[in-house]
Design brief:
Helix content is about 60%, strand content about 0%. With about 375 residues, it is mainly α. The protein folds into 2 domains: about 220 residues, Citrate Synthase, domain 1 (Orthogonal Bundle), CATH 1.10.580.10; about 100 residues, Cytochrome P450-Terp, domain 2 (Cytochrome p450-Terp, domain 2, Orthogonal Bundle). The model has no long low-confidence stretch (mean pLDDT about 90).
């Protein structure tokens, strides 16, 4: 009796925890076709909800009523000011280290806030919610103080009369945004607010699982988000487009030729591909449509970036079958809004803080320390004196 040869199976690559489910959450679900925040799909939220409503949804756990939203917005707006000592420290760092990355300055600012937060060491649900609201309110202020100082300008005070997104633009640019600009930034914050166990959120949960404080976990999340393979991708995507614009100026070369050269040189083209989404990031199309509205309003100098981006996107799809992720249109959209490129990822934090804090509170509520195993590949049984 002969036995059929065994069918060889390709080993599964689980490096980086690829494809592994490592915990439960009621906050967010990510599938190939949907991004769900506590039951609500992202396209529905982008069309119909404000960022403050989404922040309430993520942090409190349900869609706010009109009275709940009013109370939430008023409370958060009243918390926007940062202590004078923290403000002075950020100014000093930005002045003395002008090449410091704004994400690093933001991380330091949040670390400093921890020393002055009366709830810092309290991991109870009520204290966690108070800290979450304060961080949500104060992060735009830190971003604004940092950017204004880097530009040699006096930092501005937050404006409690403005919604979260409009206040963030005011703090950075010194101009009160018009309705379209404020709406576009608001939509981007909705899109960036949450994304289940991504690298930064998982970092927050891992740190929180040791039962340390929320501020420490958030500092870890910022460190993870800073990387170009995560939050920093929107900065790198815009820098890439600026390279394309420079090299192709005046017809010196075509965008297609630039892309072919990049392929040959194996240049990493940021803003494309996604660990989860294999058929395209549905957030990308939403943000592109909003960014294009502003570009059309502003004229050819803004529209050219979206035309160039569409060409790059088409070539990537044609030659590599890789779709853009949300960071690609984000780079172009923030650029034509006049937002300095190094502040793109801090703005990501101004949004994702709502998701991070929700996950930290969820982790603390039903905690078990996160401690995976490792597959050791080194030598065994060496003799020190052998």
């Amino acid at each position: 009796m002969t036995t059929a040869p065994a069918t060889a199976t390709k080993p599964v690559d689980t490096r980086g925890l690829a494809g592994q489910t490592v915990g439960d959450t009621a906050i967010c679900a990510v599938t190939q076709t949907e991004l769900i925040y506590r039951g609500y799909e992202i396209a529905d939220l982008a069309d119909n909800a404000t960022f403050e409503e989404v922040a309430h949804l993520l942090l409190v756990g349900h869609k706010p009523s009109a009275s709940e939203l009013h109370a939430f917005k008023s409370e958060v707006a009243s918390m926007r000011a940062i202590p004078a000592s923290v403000r002075a420290a950020i100014v000093n760092i930005a002045k003395e280290s002008p090449n410091a990355h704004p994400m690093s300055i933001l991380r330091s600012g949040i670390s400093l806030l921890s020393h002055l937060d009366p709830d810092c060491e309290d991991n109870s649900p009520a204290a966690g919610m108070r800290k979450s609201k304060r961080l949500l309110a104060q992060i735009p202020t830190i971003i604004g103080v940092c950017q204004r100082t880097l530009e040699g300008k006096a930092p501005l005070d937050p404006d409690a009369s403005l919604d979260h997104s409009a206040n963030l633009l005011w703090m950075i640019t010194g101009s009160k945004p018009d309705a379209l600009a404020a709406k576009i930034l608001d939509v981007s914050l909705v899109l960036y607010a949450e994304h289940d166990f991504n690298a930064s959120t998982f970092s927050c949960r891992t740190i929180a699982s040791t039962e340390t404080d929320m501020h420490s976990a958030i500092c870890g999340g910022i460190g993870a988000l800073k990387g170009p393979l995560h939050g920093g991708a929107n900065e790198m995507a815009m820098e890439m487009l600026k390279d394309v614009d420079r090299d192709c100026a005046g017809g010196a070369m075509t965008v297609d030729a630039w892309m072919q050269r990049a392929f040959v040189e194996k240049r990493k083209l940021m803003g494309f591909g996604h660990r989860v989404y294999k058929n395209g990031d549905h957030r990308a199309g939403i943000l592109r449509r909003w960014g294009l509205k502003l570009a059309d309003k502003q004229g050819p100098n803004s529209k050219k970036w979206f035309d160039m981006g569409d060409t790059v996107q088409a070539i990537m799809l044609r030659d590599k079958n890789i779709h853009p992720n949300v960071d690609f249109p984000c780079g172009m959209t923030y650029f034509i809004m006049g937002i300095p490129v190094p502040q793109y990822t801090p703005i990501f934090v101004a949004s994702r803080i709502s998701g991070w804090c929700a996950h930290i509170m969820e982790q603390h509520a039903a905690n078990r320390i996160i401690r995976p195993l490792a597959s050791y590949t080194g030598p065994m049984q060496l003799k020190w004196n052998g």
